[in-house]
Task: structure prediction
Amino acid sequence: MSKHTLSDVENTKLGYLTTRGRRTGKSHTVEIWFARSDNLVYLSHEGAYPDWMKNIQKDGTVNLKIDGVKFDGKARIVSEGDSFERGKHALYLKYYGEADSAVVDDWFSKSTIVEMDVDK
Result:
């Protein structure tokens, strides 16, 4: 069986992110939108941090299952800089299509971006 890459599953709409519970240590899985840029995966959430983001703050070791293919990696919350910009544009493009920067900036004005570096 051949090894799948992110590019094999990048057009799938939903993924399943698993983090380690910051209090219990148990696996915590959520259904989530994602977008790929190179070998990085971007996730986002608007508003207060949900449990999965709080878990990433404590331990960035995660896995993302997309169309039955599991990718392990390290995730981190990004709130500015190149990673934030790349993530919000990749997510907007995947789910809504092309838009100018003002539209994308407005859409993500209350959002947090998570960048996941996938193990090779």
Notes: The chain has one domain: 6-118.
